[in-house]
Input
Amino acid sequence: MNISDTYRNAWESYWRETSDARGEAIWDSDPALSAAPHTELLLSHADPDRTIVDLGCGNGTQTRYLATRFARAVGVDLSHAAVEHARRAADGETAVEFQQLDLTDAAAVHALHQRLGDAHVYMRAVIHQSEPAARPAVAAAVAGILGARGRAFVVELTSASREVLARAAAGPDGPPPKLRRVFHHGLKPADAPDDEIPRLLTGAGLTVLAGGDTAVPQTEHLPDGTRIDLPARWFVLARA
Output
């Protein structure tokens, strides 16, 4: 299933209109709040001497952290503009690279696996905002990159995140600026039902090794200064 032009263009326009300033994207949290604790959970099951692939890397903030914990990190994103952000931020860093990749392009995913061999995967909040018909292919991409020896850390928003976002958008001045930009570009966070994510992962031939509840911290705050944290669930996965 190919991603629609509408979806592709929404992400391209979002990243084109986003500056290189750290934290301007609402999900561009400090790795100390995201990739760092996630890495500790993954490393209980994964070999740090392997490459890790950050699926939906955006501007590469988390990818660059992952490169300090694994042999190498490769960030991939649907958006060319996002990849350009990431490359600028990583200028001179040798253990990290970025490329544009459509996760629904099975041939391109296979070529990445052929180049890297069995690799680990880090994927933070990608399936829930993918188009419904594309979600099985995204889950299959995780399995395809892992091969027999890779392990994955996947974290996805739950339906409770919709309630948090609705409350944030209902403030006296409407959505705060970073959230307003997400809505303006037609992006749809927390769009997947709670039971869909594990069903997609197991349907792609993945086995859940560990999991639990968590929250995905945002870089936006409510009018009272409270940081927006979105309820989520995490999974450590291997090929069945």
In short: Residues 5-16 form the longest helix (12 residues).
